[in-house]
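Example S7 (C-alpha cells).
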C-alpha cells in the first residue's frame, strides 16, 4: 500500500524539503502543500519511470550533495574572479567531451545536472548512445584536467552511489 502511494519515496522527500525551502516558512499550509506536491508529482509521473533508481548507498548521496554545494560556492568565486579581473583575451573557453562509465539514466542525469549547476560549466549535450557528455567550460586552460576532475570528483562517486 505504501509503495503504491509513494512510488518514489526519495523523490517525495526531496520535493517536500525543496518546497519548504522555497516558501521559507514552516507553517501548516506550507507543510500541507509540500505533502500534496510530494505525493502528487511522483504519482502523476510514475508511469514514465520504469523502475526505482538503483541507489545502493543513500548516505553517500548526502555527502555527494554536500560536495556539490561546496563546489558551487567555490566555482561562484572563481567565475566572479574570471569575469571581473581576467581580460577577455586570456579567457580560454572550451568544449570538452567527457566519456561516461555510468550506465544508469538517473546517474547520468545527476552528473549532467551537477555539471550544469556548477558555475562556469554547462552540459550541452549527451551522445545518442549515452556514452559521453559534451561540456562547455568558461575557462579551460587544460581541458583534459577538467575532464579528469569531473570523472574523479563526480562520476566515481556516482558509480558508488548507484552501484555501477
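Recovered sequence:
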Amino acid at each position: 500500500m505504501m509503495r503504491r502511494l509513494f512510488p518514489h519515496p526519495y523523490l517525495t522527500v526531496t520535493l517536500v524539503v525543496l518546497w519548504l525551502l522555497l516558501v521559507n516558512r514552516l507553517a501548516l499550509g506550507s507543510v500541507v502543500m509540500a505533502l500534496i506536491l510530494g505525493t502528487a508529482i511522483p504519482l502523476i509521473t510514475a508511469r514514465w519511470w520504469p523502475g526505482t533508481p538503483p541507489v545502493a548507498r543513500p548516505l553517500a548521496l548526502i555527502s555527494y550533495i554536500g560536495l556539490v554545494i561546496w563546489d558551487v560556492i567555490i566555482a561562484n568565486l572563481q567565475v566572479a574572479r574570471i569575469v571581473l579581473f581576467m581580460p577577455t583575451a586570456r579567457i580560454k573557453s572550451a568544449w570538452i567531451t567527457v566519456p561516461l562509465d555510468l550506465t544508469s539514466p538517473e546517474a547520468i542525469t545527476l552528473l549532467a545536472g551537477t555539471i550544469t549547476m556548477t558555475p562556469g560549466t554547462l552540459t550541452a549535450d549527451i551522445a545518442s548512445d549515452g556514452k559521453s557528455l559534451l561540456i562547455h567550460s568558461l575557462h579551460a586552460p587544460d581541458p583534459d584536467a577538467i575532464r579528469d576532475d569531473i570523472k574523479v570528483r563526480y562520476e566515481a562517486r556516482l558509480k558508488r552511489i548507484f552501484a555501477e
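Notes on this example. Residues 2-48 form one domain.
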